[in-house]
Amino acid sequence: MSTTAPDTLPPAAVDDVLGRIATGAAQRERDGTRPFEQIGFVRDSGLGALRVPTEFGGAGADLRRFFDVLISLGAADPDVAQILRAHYGFGEVVRFLPDERARRRWFELFTGGSIIGNAVTERGPVQAGDFVGLATTFTPDGDGHLIDGVKYYSTGTLYADHVWVWGATPDPLPISAVVPVDRPGITITDDWDGFGQRSTASGTTRFAGVRAAADEVFASSPDDPPAPRLTTGAFLQLYLTAVVAGIAQTVAADAVELLRGRGRGFTHGTAELPREDPVLLQVVGELSASAHAARATVLAAADALDHAEHELLAGRFDTGAAQQASVAAAHAKTVVDRLTLDAATRLFDVGGASATSRERDLDRHWRSARTLASHNSDPLKRRVIGDHLLHGTELPDNTYF
Asked: How confident is the model at residue 1 (pLDDT cuts 50, 70, 90)?
């Protein structure tokens, strides 16, 4: 259920920007061209404000609509989709800020076309999802703070106007700030070396005495109860799964194009032309079904997130809706990752050896899906869900659930 007005960004406008982003996506991946222009399309189109409520000038999309668009964005270019994850994730946090003036102030970044990047994770011994143990420091300085530290996996920050950085106070307590990326002391290095999602610039961001003003900081005190992060975590995890589902859409489309273009097959095939071979046609049909199932699975989980958001915004915190949303997002990941990785491999069953040409770059689908799926261990996640279902164990309250 949505608490916002109907989506004011027409489907035709969304389709137009997605089409422009899709143009040349494979060539960009082959050449290593960074999608600055495509992120510009997002800025100019208002797509970055898709989830901003209409009363704050956004499109007011509910989560089902948002994830449906995100799957299509992942099909157009999964790197562009992943670049925007921190941007949209910060928007979900803003939705729950108790101060309307603060919500308006931050939503104005979205409606003004700004893109938000991230500087959350650090290399080293700190457990993923542990914010108190971060080595990045926020030192009090007048009415603000000075930020010092080194982050990695800074997805999207190279393309962003602002960066959402997390660290710890001297106490230590978790603390974060959103500051312009051109502020003195910030250095962004495009040193991400993953074999997939090559253009997300998920590398290093350094902070050396970066000033964060009081109204740019999100802080807590020792007396504050821990903020529940279940809905934010479910959103961020389903986000990854939606991009993977988008890859499944492109795999299915590429299978059709690949088989349609083949002029010769094997002498032991069942038809003279590969596109008439019932065995190969069956593979294409299966890949299409996998893409359909992946989209439907993500959208079913999005419905659970919509319900949880409705309950929380209404002040009903004890209904279990947030945990149900997290379970739904975890289930979706398990199913969609497997469907897409299998489909990305089976794509080559309809193409033969010529499909492995670097010019075609069809291996990018598996590389990107595998990279995205690796953000959160599927076996570990399935173990937690099994423990929760069998023993009633509470889900971890971190951004990985």
From this structure: very low
Q: How far apart are the first and last CA of the chain?
A: 21
Rounded to an integer, the average pLDDT of 386-397 is 90
Q: Minimal CA–CA distance to 55: which of 102, 107, 109?
A: 107
> What band does 396 get if pLDDT is binned at 50, 70 and 90?
confident
Instruction: Specify the long-range contacts of residues 32-36, CB closer than 8 Å, at least 24 apart.
Output: 32/198, 32/199, 33/199, 34/158, 34/159, 34/190, 34/199, 34/201, 35/77, 35/79, 35/80, 35/83, 35/159, 35/199, 36/159
Cα dist from 126 to 132, 209, 397, whole Å: 9, 22, 17
Strand spans (E) along 279-327: none
Q: What is the DSSP string of 149-192?
A: EEE---TTGGG-SEEEEEEE-SS--EEEEEEETTSTTEEEE---
Q: 10: buried, middle or exposed (CB in 10 Å: 19+, 13-18, 0-12)?
A: exposed
Chain mean pLDDT for the chain: 92
CA angle 218, 158, 93 (to 5 degrees): 30
HSE-up of residue 367 (Cα within 13 Å, Cβ side): 15
Residue whose C-alpha is closest to residue 161's, from 251, 36, 250: 36
Angle at 19 between CA 189 and CA 282, to 5 degrees: 105
CA 42 → CA 9, 21, 112, 286, distances in Å?
A: 12, 9, 11, 33
- Strand-pair partners of 144: 141
Which SS3 state, helix, strand or coil, does residue 206 take?
strand
In angstroms, the CA 121 to CA 154 distance is 8
DSSP bridge pairs for 283: none
